[in-house]
Write a structure and sequence with these properties.
single chain; 75% helix; Growth Hormone, Chain: A; 275 residues; mainly alpha
């Protein structure tokens, strides 16, 4: 969903119907255009929402678990889409994108973390990488939808792409509702019987994995959790910028920075200028 909608906004800048509804008439070439300041504001609002959503998700998931946090984020996203769909001006659209950034931030961090905790080690790399594939699939669908509506000069040229986001909410919601909670989170909360049941659900019936094996696995998980707690005692956020941890922080930051330095953040604006 995030790959779909984030690419959608950049493509709308070059769409005549969207530019006429939300833009201003340029007297030089007699064409409606979205002002540069608003293009920047809309893009930044999404990023701000993402950053805040990422921060809030860590607190909520630690307290309420992965499933509840993702379900609440999905419900919020379903409601915030109404602001986007019924927007009548750029400020209203900006508010919609800002609020949508919160659940998008949740999905960014929760999906990979959840996949890493519930999948076996041999399959973990495939499912975590599949998250990136979903981004690309969403972007391809977004481009296809816009291409199909490129000749439409009515408001539905941009409202239909907005509305199509609702079709993902029900199947994703059902998937989250019936998915097992992360056994690691249950162990951290001391809910060992529930963690054992989740392990049994996550294991194939013909694999020979028994309830006794589940109890041993939960005991090992609890031991690992206790070791992590002991290691984190007296550790603060400031330690990320001290000693050898500073080097680790730099490596992580520069790794993520390469995604934008390659020019991916400019693709939406390029679509507009090449119109």
């Amino acid at each position: 969903m995030e790959g779909y909608d984030t690419l959608l906004l950049g493509q709308f800048y070059a769409q005549p119907a969207f530019a006429k509804r939300f833009g201003e008439l340029n007297p030089i070439n007699n064409v409606y255009e979205i002002p540069t300041r608003w293009q920047t504001a809309l893009g930044v609002s999404t990023q701000i929402g993402n950053i805040l959503g990422l921060q809030i998700t860590g607190v909520l998931s630690e307290r309420f678990g992965y499933r509840i946090t993702m379900l609440v984020a999905l419900i919020c996203l379903t409601g915030f889409l109404f602001i986007q769909f019924f927007a009548v001006n750029l400020p209203m659209l900006l508010v919609g994108y800002l609020l949508l950034g919160f659940p998008w931030g949740t999905f960014q961090t929760m999906t990979v973390s959840y996949a890493a905790e519930v999948m076996p080690v041999r399959l973990r790399q495939y499912l975590t990488t599949y998250v990136n594939l979903c981004w690309v699939i969403g972007q391809i669908i977004s481009s296809g939808v816009n291409r199909a509506l490129v000749g439409n000069n009515t408001q539905w040229a941009y409202k239909i792409p907005f509305a199509l986001q609702w079709m993902w909410c029900l199947p994703i919601g059902l998937g989250i509702a019936f998915a097992p909670e992360s056994p690691w989170w249950l162990v951290k909360k001391g809910r060992f019987p529930e963690a054992e049941k989740c392990l049994m659900r996550l294991t194939a019936r013909d694999s020979g994995f028994t309830e006794d094996d589940a109890k041993k696995t939960v005991a090992m998980m609890d031991h690992t959790n206790q070791l992590e707690i002991a290691q984190h005692e007296g550790v603060a956020f400031k330690h990320c910028f001290q000693g050898i941890n500073l080097r680790r922080t730099e490596i992580a930051c520069f790794t993520w920075l390469t995604q934008n330095t390659c020019g991916s953040a400019l693709m939406g604006n390029a679509t507009y200028f090449l119109k």
